[in-house]
């Protein structure tokens, strides 16, 4: 099996890049992955903030195999299944009081879940007689998925640029980003949350009553890099949405399922969304799985209205995927992994990670270290005093990631946090089973990888 192919030829698999070499991965256990040559990698970013429970957990594989033996698939237009019904109830309970009496729609991942949420929001508005409402406002520098609908509400410039003629444009509003705050705050961004929220209100007011929903990542995922919102921001956003009859969709594809030290990140700010989207940690990567958690108000509108959700995928509520998700949920509860991911709890895995990463602030080119729970980002700058980013062509984040891989450390490099093109950061989101020694080793490797990548002047 080739891990790299000569320019002008390629493997039978359409890979993400025709230029990069990809080692064939063959095994995983705990925080480690191995390639076919026997090289071991510590998965410091949970692949792409996916793995939360660790690799190679036998009981998840057993639950999936048992389901496959019993019943591999039925179509959701003909049957429901006990495994999907039970898991939906478990997940609703995990999502807390806000979703009491609501329901869950299972998909195969984040993008499908976002598509589902967008259509659900539109249908909700139609069901309650608000037929003019169809627009979905989102934030610049956001990422909600790679399907065309999800891309239309994503602000990630790089990922959407060539597809722009194909997507419907709605308003994108400004987003808090404290390291580079647009309001030049001198009070550690204590008050600017209200200013950002006010921009949302302005956008809603200028859309002639056509806004159906606002979609937001409570903690920014990859695009901006683990930016935690300033105090009061999400609460104000929720209040503005409610006042204007606009549904609040929170995208917890990355931040959900314990990753930030709460079951869902919105719990940090006591915000009650109408629709919550999650994926990644939901199955920890053991099966393709996403979920849309729907509040009672939204579900009731459809149940008491047309009675039919105008939407469906062949593989929604796939029995093997939901069996994996249910087994993952039971395991993360049994092992108390959400507690481990709470960076505010002294002595937790996440607190250890936070202080180890904070220690990188003195490293050459490290401009910012930010995050919460087990979701962190390290932003690089060419000049610490002015916060000047590296030229995008240098691909500094990519260089650091490559130097880290050489050392057997996997991190997730992203470019564009400053303006869509420039800005380099790494997302750090390890499995919650990582030990203090493994954190220590990883941060040492990362420091060396950063030092090695700094351009010589
Ligand atoms: C916040 C957020 N939403 C949606 C998605 C899309 O999820 P998927 O890649 O599973 O389709 C992602 C993926 O990274 C994400 O980070």
Briefly summarize what is shown:
This protein is an alpha/beta fold and 457 residues long.
Give an overview in words:
- This protein has 457 residues and is an alpha/beta fold.
- The chain has 14 helices and 15 strands.
What's the structural blueprint in terms of helices and strands?
Elements: E1 25-29, E2 32-35, E3 40-43, H1 46-49, H2 58-70, H3 82-95, E4 103-107, H4 110-127, E5 135-139, H5 148-152, H6 157-160, E6 172-173, H7 192-205, E7 211-216, H8 233-243, E8 247-252, E9 275-278, E10 290-294, H9 296-303, H10 319-334, H11 337-340, H12 349-358, E11 366-372, E12 375-380, H13 396-406, E13 409-410, E14 412-415, E15 424-428, H14 436-453
Parallel strand pairs: 3-13, 5-6, 5-7, 7-8, 8-9
Antiparallel strand pairs: 1-2, 2-3, 4-10, 9-10, 11-12, 12-15, 14-15
Helix pairs in contact: 2-10, 3-10, 4-9, 7-8, 12-14, 13-14
The chain binds pyridoxal-5'-phosphate.
The site of pyridoxal-5'-phosphate (PLP) has 14 residues, from helix 4.
Silhouette: globular
Output mean pLDDT: 95
Number of helical segments?
Answer: 14
Using the CA coordinates, give the radius of gyration: 22 Å
**Can you tell me the residue ranges where pLDDT is under 50 for at least 5 consecutive residues?**
none
Strand content: 15-25%
Largest sheet properties: 7 strands, mixed
N-to-C series of helices and strands: EEEHHHEHEHHEHEHEEEHHHHEEHEEEH
Helical fraction:
25-40%
Structural class: alpha/beta
Q: Which features characterize this protein?
A:
four-stranded mixed beta sheet, seven-stranded mixed beta sheet, alpha/beta, 457 residues, 33% helix, binds pyridoxal-5'-phosphate
